[in-house]
Design a protein that fits this description.
The chain is of the alpha+beta class and 201 residues long. The protein has helices at 15-22, 29-33, 57-68, 112-118, 138-149, and strands spanning 93-99, 104-110, 153-155, 166-176, 185-194. The protein is globular and about 45 Å long.
């Protein structure tokens, strides 16, 4: 696997590095203005709440944060996110680039807890390059749905990371857009249920 440094992406091997990678220089007063919920945000509901899935508190917190950044738009932009607002979410967070013509996805940022359970660091890799994340995989299908609908998607994909203690995975994928029209990045938060815990992360 090529080193992450050669791809132009930073591996989130510590919370400090994750903050540095997620918080570009342009995060400023503009991002902080988005903290207040707007009328539009009140119309976006957590996906899955109308179903019987038990919503993890981490996923709910992630969705509420994303919704607070809408600012009257269909989707917030990456520049609206401030990792200092969400330190407890950072280990469970991923950023994925949306590539087009043809559609593909690229891991830009992977939180420490996700990387630990994946047993490998896929930062900078395209989904199409990996055997378990191709167009027929759940992780691809979920993100393609986000791109198509411009709305968050709740998911319970199969776990393929090789940690025998993990019994289930839950996640939410939320669209980000530089122009509030087309999705150019996806913010994901993933949690893991372990057998020894019997629930939670």
């Amino acid at each position: 696997m090529p080193a992450a440094a050669n791809t132009g992406y930073r591996s989130a091997t510590a919370t400090g590095k994750l903050v540095a990678a997620l918080r570009p220089a342009e995060v400023s007063a503009r991002a902080r203005r988005g903290r207040a919920a707007t009328k539009a945000s009140g119309r976006v509901r957590m996906p899955g709440r109308d179903k019987s899935e038990a919503m993890d508190t981490i996923l709910t917190a992630a969705f509420d944060y994303w919704r607070s950044k809408l600012g009257g738009r269909a989707m917030p932009a990456r520049r609206d996110l401030d990792p200092l607002d969400i330190p407890k979410l950072l280990p469970w967070l991923m950023l994925t680039d949306v590539l087009r013509n043809p559609l593909d996805f690229r891991y830009r940022l992977i939180g420490t807890e996700i990387a630990a359970r994946a047993r490998r660091d896929y930062t900078g890799r395209r989904f199409s390059e990996l055997t378990h994340t191709g167009p027929s995989s759940q992780v691809w299908i979920d993100r393609a749905r986000v791109v198509e609908t411009c709305r968050p998607v709740f998911t319970t994909p199969p776990y393929t990371g090789g940690d025998d203690s993990v019994s289930a995975v839950s996640g939410i994928h939320m669209p980000l857009s530089d122009d509030a029209s087309s999705v150019n990045m996806i913010l994901s938060v993933v949690t893991f249920q372990t057998r020894r815990q019997g629930g939670g992360t």
